[in-house]
Amino acid sequence: MRRIALFSDVHGNLPALDAVLADMARSGFGEGSERYCLGDLIGYGPDPGGVVERVRALGVPTIVGNYDDGVAAHRGQCGCYYGTEQAKSDGEASYRVTERLLDERDAQWLLALPQHLWLEHEGAVILLTHGSPRRLNEYLLLDRTEAQLARLAIEAGAHVVCHGHIHIPYHRSFDAAAAADVRLRGTSSLTPVEGRIHYVSSGSVGKPKDGDPRACWVELALGDEDEVREAAPDDVAAGPVGETEVWLATVFHRVSYDVEQVARAMAAVGLPETLAEALRRA
Questions:
Q1: What domains are there in the chain, each with its CATH number?
Q2: Which of 24, 167, 177, 242 is the most exposed place for a label (fewest CB within 10 A)?
């Protein structure tokens, strides 16, 4: 059985990242194991440079997030969606502080990261991205329909789409027939993707938004049905990948760390108290 660890959206929170890395090691994902970072190392947290340095030193394959790109390229904004005026104010303050704290070496490293990584396992095609297959800052929230998600996967040519960005962990799977309307519209140039499609959202290491302030990472289990069910007995979305013999299941890990230590560090670098409070309540 193949095991893969994914984490994303560290957002300048080094204590949360270190807690996750330690938990990964306890779970068998130490040095030399298959680990991937799905972007947004910086923003909102007090130590963007420390996070970049830790991930870079580990040599973990990493893709760029919208916040990484926005700050490192000095775009003036992160490409984030703000639902309230308070969120907009906090986001703008975070951008300014992060841009001030990030040095040019780290910025250039972030800008050199790819937007996608592709994996393959016995015919199963897995896409790692930050937002969505088509856009760095697209939110694949739980209200997306199966037809919408299926179309994105088919357009990308992926059986499995793993992403971050929304800070909410989930695993969804469904039959590609949900995209029958796509085929009926004559999109014959699309890469054929048949069978079962999977979407995995990795949650967030450093800024969860699902009501649980603990850091989050996800383990993928790929193998035959029996070994995958044994590895992840609670995953109701477990199932075959495409039309292959491979099954996929997920295990989401939650890890406690000292949130108040990070809140104090946020205040010390000039981040708004409202962001620290959001970290506490997730």
A1: 2-281 (3.60.21.10)
A2: 177
